[in-house]
From TrEMBL:
Protein name as it appears in the record: carbonic anhydrase
Pfam families in alphabetical order: Pro_CA
Family: Belongs to the beta-class carbonic anhydrase family.
Taxonomy, superkingdom: Bacteria
Feature: compositional bias, Pro residues: 1-11
Length: 199
């Protein structure tokens, strides 16, 4: 059975159609221009660079915090958390799950770039809620090769945030494991709900 190209995630077709009519900000990649979407991004970057001045920042995040979040397109981490350029590391993947590669990034973030706090963010309506490990089996059946990675699908958002907190707190590579907090972001209200590490 082929892997579905996309899971049944909002926004609805109506919302998508409404958004397609938006003109967006001046540098928006949605602006009408020929070429692929990447061509539009490159064009938007040319405009961005025109107004850009070197902020002269250090690579070390000002707030000494790393935010691990799902890659979901509806989450604007900087806006949602009141963050500005240079404030934090943002590390994102499907689900915001703490995988080995997230630990790799957090280890570099803490040991080489001075972060001390970790914020973990899952969200309502996550695509990982509708997947199972069958995804791997179907993938293997289709392409003839078993992925080396786990899907890391989950059925319970709160439990998976706790699992992620636990993985950070028990990682021997991370020197700073005291300030680790986990949240669920509601994509309909924009509000974070904190998860108690003890169920
Ligand atoms: Zn998600």
């Amino acid at each position: 059975m082929p892997i579905p190209a996309s899971q049944p995630l909002p926004p609805s077709a109506d919302r998508a159609a409404a958004r397609a009519g938006e003109s967006g900000p001046p540098h928006s990649a949605k602006a009408e221009s020929p070429g692929t979407v990447t061509d539009r991004l490159v064009e938007a970057n040319r405009h961005y660079a025109t107004d850009f001045t070197d902020p002269g920042m250090d690579a070390r995040p000002v707030l000494k915090v790393a935010v691990v979040s799902c890659m979901d397109a509806r989450i604007d981490l900087h806006a949602a958390l009141g963050l500005e350029l240079g404030d934090c590391h943002t590390i994102r993947n499907a689900g915001g799950v703490v995988t080995d590669d997230i630990i790799r990034s957090l280890t570099i973030s803490q040991r080489a770039l001075g972060t001390r706090s970790v914020v973990l963010i899952h969200h309502t309506g996550c695509g990982l809620l509708s997947l199972t490990e069958d995804f791997r089996h179907e993938l293997e059946a289709e392409v003839g090769q078993r992925p080396t990675w786990a899907v890391e699908a989950f059925k319970d958002l709160d439990d998976d945030v706790r699992q992620s907190m636990q993985r950070v707190r028990t990682s021997p590579f991370l020197p700073h494991r005291d300030d680790v907090r986990g949240f669920v972001f509601d994509v309909t209200t924009g509000l974070l709900r904190e998860i108690d590490p003890r169920p």
